[in-house]
Amino acid sequence: MRALRVVREGEPSGYPKASLLLRSGARLVDAAIAWTLYVSTGPAGVVMALLYTLFADGMLQGQSPGKKIFGVKVVYLPTRSGARHRDSVLRNAPFGLILILSMMPELGPRAFFAGLTVIGGIEALQCFRDKEGLRLGDTWAQTQVIDGKVAADHPQRITRAEESRAPARLKQSQ
Question: What angle do CA 130, 128, 118 make, to 5 degrees?
């Protein structure tokens, strides 16, 4: 039986900050996959790379292929479950914007690298400075990247008081 716990905004998640080295490695693998899709799918390449970038974290119960290789996972904090496709799209929207900038006819590569520098820099700085490693995308999606082994060591119990305040979609029948 899986218990749910409602996480209030501003309350710490209880998960430790995932290694930035592991997160960076996972992002590089996912960027390489997106680049491969871009190069190998011809005129639809940018769209395929964009779709992969947006939906990757929801593929394998909160793990993109890169996150699976490096052993990190995206957790949707209100339910403490793996990120869904909706959560993946929200948390990766800033990176999707970078790819959309590359579609600008006149400025394509320059807009891509400018967006990568500005948006990527802001996201990296936010992730580095936050005590739980949350970037802006994580804040929007209410997610956190955690070490894949930590989630199994964090059994969660929900109290009757918390259960009564939880939205109906978060409650489980027992």
Answer: 110
